[in-house]
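Example record

The entry below shows one chain as it appears in the dataset: sequence first, then C-alpha cells.
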Amino acid sequence: MHIGEEEVGPFGFAQLPENGLTEDTLVWWQGAPNWQRAGDVTELEPLLMQSAQAVAGEPATSEPADSDSRPTIHCPYCGEKILAVARKCRYCNEWLRPDEKTEKSMTGGGTDHSSLSRRKKTVLGLIIGVLALVALSLVALLVYNKMNEPGVVVRGADEPEPEVEQVVEERNVEETPAEVPAEVAEPAWDAGHPLFGYSHEFEGYMPFEGKNYPIKVTLDAYGGRITNVVYTNVTYGGQIRMTCTEVDERINFFSLEGKAGSKDFSMHLSYDDYLNIEGVAWEGDRQLQVYMHPTCTHVK
C-alpha cells in the first residue's frame, strides 16, 4: 500500500491497521487491476474500523479478520469464499453484478464473455457458408463435365425417348441399257460382302482429354442399306438412335447422324475386310476419333 509517497508492504490482512491503513490509503493486492482507495474496498471495512478505534484510543477487537460474521458466498467463477455484498471477487477479479459487468464492458475493461460468444458464432456461420458455397460449386462442375462428355444424352424423367424415323437411302437408278443384263444393274452387296447381310455389334472407344471412353454400336446391314443403329456411351449408359445418311460399299464407308441432347451427333466411319472400324465423330463443333472392332455378328 501507499503511505504518503512511499510504497510499503506487502502485509498480511490483519497487519494493515497497525501499519497506518486509512480510508484514503491506496492499496493493491494480487489480481487487482490497479491501485484502489481502501475506503472503496468492501473487504477492508472491518480493518478500517479497527484503525479508527486505534486512532480514537478505543481498544481494538481481538477477533481475527477471518472470523467476520457477515454473510459470505462462494465466487461463481473461481469458487473462493467472499462477502455476500461484494461487487467484485478479490481473487479472480470478476464482477459479480450484471450492471457492473455491463458498465465495465462498455468502458473497455475486462473480458465480455457474451461478446466473445457472439463473435465465435459469427465466424462459425461464415465458415459454414463458405464450405456450402464450395460444395455447390463442385457439384455444378461435376454436372457440367458430365454433360460435356462425348455422346451423353440427358433427358428429363418424364420425357419420352424421341422417335427417330428410319431413313432408307433412295437411289436414282437409271434405266438399264438393253445391252446390259438387268441382274448387274444394282450389285448384290449381301453376297460375300463382309458388312452387309448381317446384324453386327461393335465395341471400341473415343479418346478425349487423355482418357479413352468406351462405346458400343449395334446395326443391321442388308441390301446395301444400314438400319436400326444404336450408339451407346458405356461409361454413362446414354444411348443415341442414329440413321444412316450415306453408304459407299466400294470404299467401305458409311456415315451416321443423330442427336446428343440438343447437339448434333454424327459419325463418318470406314472399315476393312475384318470389319475393324476407324473414323471421326462430331458432337456439335467438337471432333472426336473413333476406333471399334466387331464383337458379335448374326445372320437373319
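Notes for this example: Residues 2-107 form one domain. The chain is about 20% helix and 30% strand.
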